Amino acid sequence: MSNMNEQMAAKYKNNFLKEIEEQAEMGDWVKMCMQCGVCSGSCPTNFHAGWDHPPQEIFMMIRAGKREEVLTSNSMWQCTSCYNCYVRCPRKVPITHIMHGIAEYAYRLGLAPKMQPSLHLSQTFWNNATKHGRVNEVQLTQSLYFKDGIGAGIKKAMEMKDVALGLVKAKRLNIMEALGGGHKCKDVDGIHKMLAKAKELEAKRKAGKAAGA
Amino acid sequence: MTVATNQTILVVGGGISGMTAALEAAETGKQVVLVEKNPWLGGRTAQLYRYFPKMCHPTCGLEINLRRLKANPRIQVYTLAEVTGINGVKGDYTVTVKQTPRYVNEKCTACGDCAKAVDGEIDDAFNYNLGKTKVAYLPHVMSYPQRYVLDPSIKGTPDADKAKAACKVGAIDLDMQEELLNFKAGAIVWATGWQPYDAKKITPYRYGEFANVITNVEFERLADPKGPTGGKILRPSDGKEARNVAFIQCAGSRDENHLRHCSRFCCMGSLKQTHYVQEAYGDAGKSTIYYIDIRAIDRFEDFYQKVKANPNVGFIKSKVARITQDKDQNPVLWGVNTEGYKRYSTPHDLVVLAVGMEPSVKGVEIPAEVMSDSSGFVMADPANAGIFGAGCATNALDVNRAVQSATAAALRAIQVVNKVARAEA
Ligand SMILES: Cc1cc2nc3c(=O)[nH]c(=O)nc-3n(C[C@H](O)[C@H](O)[C@H](O)COP(=O)(O)OP(=O)(O)OC[C@H]3O[C@@H](n4cnc5c(N)ncnc54)[C@H](O)[C@@H]3O)c2cc1C
Ligand code: SF4
Ligand code: SF4
Hints:
The complex is a heterodimer of chains A (213) and B (425).
Chain A: H1 3-12, H2 16-23, H3 38-42, H4 55-63, H5 67-71, H6 75-78, H7 84-88, H8 95-108, H9 117-132, H10 137-145, H11 150-159, H12 161-169, H13 188-210
Chain B: E1 8-12, H1 16-27, E2 31-35, H2 58-70, E3 75-78, E4 81-89, E5 92-99, H3 113-117, E6 121-123, E7 132-134, E8 136-137, E9 149-150, H4 158-166, E10 179-185, E11 187-190, E12 194-196, E13 213-215, H5 216-223, E14 244-251, H6 266-281, E15 286-291, H7 301-309, E16 313-317, E17 322-325, E18 331-337, E19 342-347, E20 350-355, E21 357-359, E22 371-372, E23 378-379, E24 387-389, H8 399-424
Parallel strand pairs in B: 1-2, 1-11, 2-3, 11-24, 13-20, 14-15, 14-20, 15-16
Antiparallel strand pairs in B: 4-5, 5-10, 6-7, 8-9, 12-21, 17-18, 18-19, 22-23
Helix pairs in contact in B: 1-2, 1-8, 5-6
């Protein structure tokens, strides 16, 4: 358990709902859910296997104080941001945003499932995009393909070979990116400074919340 | 000729609420003018097959009220009439009423010869347009006044001559014109009732696209022996018996995207309608109610428990997310059951949307300053204290509560005209 996780667990003891309300972005909406089920029934991923708990159930689990189960769940990470639930929710609960809010909180506490594909994608994408201020598509694709080992990566790359060649032909993919070339942002330093400042502000805001300010 | 003074009470809307308010006021000796826009009295209650909690036929309650009405010389009834203007203040209003022609005068004996003579047909509004009726028609068996109506579209057609020729008592008068009537009133009761929420707006339910997705008001007409199917519960798509019926609660109600309020009657409405399925098909008739929570308010708990004990009625705690259709045109309901969070996708023969109540005044200009709440229902306005809402114009209510509210409105109106009378004495 991370330090922050222990702190938060101690701070909110038996009131997980309050913890979500105060610490997760948009968490204060959870109490508005009336358990109608429209969100779960509208979720495109819910009709596939592998989705632990639909949003409605996550919200009920929060109220029931199932802290460990919620924060370590893969459910929030499965959200595709299709917004079907959000537009249909009779209570106008911003479900999509709450899912991301809880996911981000779980990540900060160090409880997010390891190597969860969407988490992995988010991290990879972020690191890639912020490095030069532009996405390096070849390297991004590589790091995703090779996530599960070299063999799996080569197999996947071979499968997608024709698509890649087509993209290169159409000048939508620059092979030079593989070597760190390709398009970059003009003022990389400026971007880095801006991101550092944003990060500092956000960290301050969240630390304030965690401290109960 | 309208005999009205500023001691007269004007009642707008002749549904169960308006009739009640008019009768209660007239029976205490007040002069009442009742204005109804349909060619008949009774409102939407008359369009039900049976009504809860006692499962009686609306004709029964309607009959009692019509007897009271006929016995009371102090009520003047205008049908096919609408209020278009209200001027003045509490105790001294002048109202304008637009009277649309019926083309049939009071000589009509309701023999029906005109209807037999004509060929033209129009949508049957009484049956929520589920069937057709002739251009010369009696809206329903209990219509009051018991007089036929000619649809305006008949004018200038051969049917007009046929109808006129067929009438032995000379009741058909095609020269009738629209008229504007002006008269005085001391107090006004606004009882214009409700309308079903437009189910087309709940797009994931595909009403209007899938023939076998219908609304609760339409289902009442299907179950009624006087309705378009002669009381047989048949699917609109192929006329097959609908033995496996799903009810979707809160269709449009309790929904920030549609109606904000709980419509209150629709849980009971669907519980009642499971009786129709049972009555039609016995143990072969199955009903499933998809619900968020069942709101069988106060004294109705018993009714709910009895339906719950019926093994032919299933309950699934879930608001259906969407409807698709299989190759046999069976609607398939998709969602997640809150009890256990399990997914389902279940076909039924017929789906009944328990659509909620919207005030019929919504989006309509009331020709006076009247306050309304966030759902559009009329509220008491302290600044305009001579106009009182009654029945479903003020809130989503069942018949019992609508009648209570109408009596309350009548009492308030009586107090206003009593004050006028004292001042004038
Ligand atoms: C499917 C369904 C089933 C139901 N079942 C039951 C049941 O079993 N038991 C029960 O207790 N309740 C039931 N209800 C509720 C019941 O229908 C209402 O409580 C009742 O109709 C209220 O009567 P009202 O007079 O207030 O309104 P309405 O019946 O709507 O009457 C209003 C009248 O005003 C007229 N009007 C409207 N605008 C104007 C205007 N501008 N000028 C003049 N006239 C106007 C209308 O034509 C109408 O005649 C059911 C409702 C539905 C939808
Ligand atoms: S749709 Fe909205 S109210 Fe319904 S269960 Fe989901 S979050 Fe709750
Ligand atoms: S009465 Fe029942 S179906 Fe109607 S809005 Fe209320 S909860 Fe929903």
